What does this fold into?
Amino acid sequence: MSRVEELSARVRERFPEALADVRVDLDGPVLVVGREHVVAVCTYLRDQEDYRLLSDLCGVDGLGAEPRFEVNLNLTCLDPHERVRVKVQLDADDPSMPSLTDVWRTANFHEREVYDFFGITFDGHPNLTRLFMPDEWIGHPLRKDYSVGGVPVEYKIEPAYVGDRVVSEQGRPAAGGVPGRLMSDRGTRSPWTWSGQPASGVRVDPPRRKQEPEDRA
It folds into this structure.
């Protein structure tokens, strides 16, 4: 009997209703666990099977599949060095599962990231708030039905210079000219810098010419 079969047999013996599926993927064994059993199974794997490290916790959106969402927990045993993945599948109309912060403290930020990007909630999390997106952001950007589009941003700073020349209106991005980059190099204007018209009230200094060295002859 393989290590995967032995592990799954022990888990199934301890939690007869917990495992929905057991398989081996390219990165190792996968235990598909019902969400109502995930805390108990993970506690067992940590304490009895020595999978003490939660290497990663991530979300998956399988838009069009049933169940739609997955949460994958990648667990590591350090001695001997072995890995196992615990997978929890969640329906689109109720993408929620218990928090694992009481099993691994590091799950705190992982779960906030999955909530932020996928909208999957973790019941019992001590502070389930967005991690990367602003609090007022609408939607979850890694869902596959999330509308992908740009956020309009208007830059208004000093005019751009190439050497001693002000970049003409025709040479700016609005006219298909140089890329719209805002870069500087140690306080000097970069040849790739661009901006639109200066903001009202902003002083526009003329370009400084290089000072010729004095003739000491």
